């Protein structure tokens, strides 16, 4: 079984913010594969189903970004999912908007959701799909930028990014990791 987690913040207030691009990707992935995100367990909204014939659990932690690991660890334990079968989708300030990149491991790079996952999983060696949101234009602060709603003129690019993320996450389920990184990176 695979576990695909999208990072974000719960609630209408954060729904269309840059920090919620992981949640938006999970919503679109669930819709594409007919998986209902209707279970509220382990401080997460989740749903199970099949992608490319493989059982998957899709997860949106409801702990707020900075405590994401508190939701993900119990889910992995409950379903007996190995770290190698986990994919985390989240926003990356250091990549241009629209770009996506798979990474096999790494530091948190200042991302508090990833810091929480590393703390609760006890390792930084979990697979990631990073979605570029770019750095804020001067004088906007980073914290304001990530919690700012997407502007109307950014929605076309966001939709394309989410479509690409869904294709990439779908391929993660049954594609060799090195082939996956070569294809998308």
Q: How would you describe this structure to a colleague?
A:
The chain contains 6 helices and 7 strands. α1 crosses α5 (about 155-175) and α2 packs parallel to α3. The protein is globular and about 45 Å long. Helix content is about 35%, strand content about 20%. The model has no long low-confidence stretch (mean pLDDT about 95). It is an alpha/beta fold. The chain has helices at about 20-35, 70-80, 110-120, 140-145, 155-175, 175-185; strands at about 1-5, 40, 45-50, 55-60, 85-90, 100-105, 125-130. The two termini are about 25 Å apart. A 7-stranded mixed sheet has the order 2-3-4-1-5-7-6, with helices on both faces.
Strand content: 15-25%
Uncertain segments are none
Count the DSSP helices.
Answer: 6
| Terminal Cα span | 25 Å
Number of DSSP E strands: 7
Mean pLDDT: 96
Determine the structural class based on helices, strands and strand pairing: alpha/beta
Give the biggest beta sheet: 7 strands, mixed
Shape: globular
Query: How many whole angstroms does the radius of gyration measure?
Result: 15 Å
How helical, in percent, are the residues? 25-40%
Q: Which strands sit side by side, in order, in the main sheet? A: 2-3-4-1-5-7-6
Order of helices and strands: EHEEEHEEHEHHH
Family: Belongs to the PTH family.
Main location: cytoplasm
Active site: 19 (proton acceptor)
Keywords: Cytoplasm, Hydrolase, RNA-binding, tRNA-binding
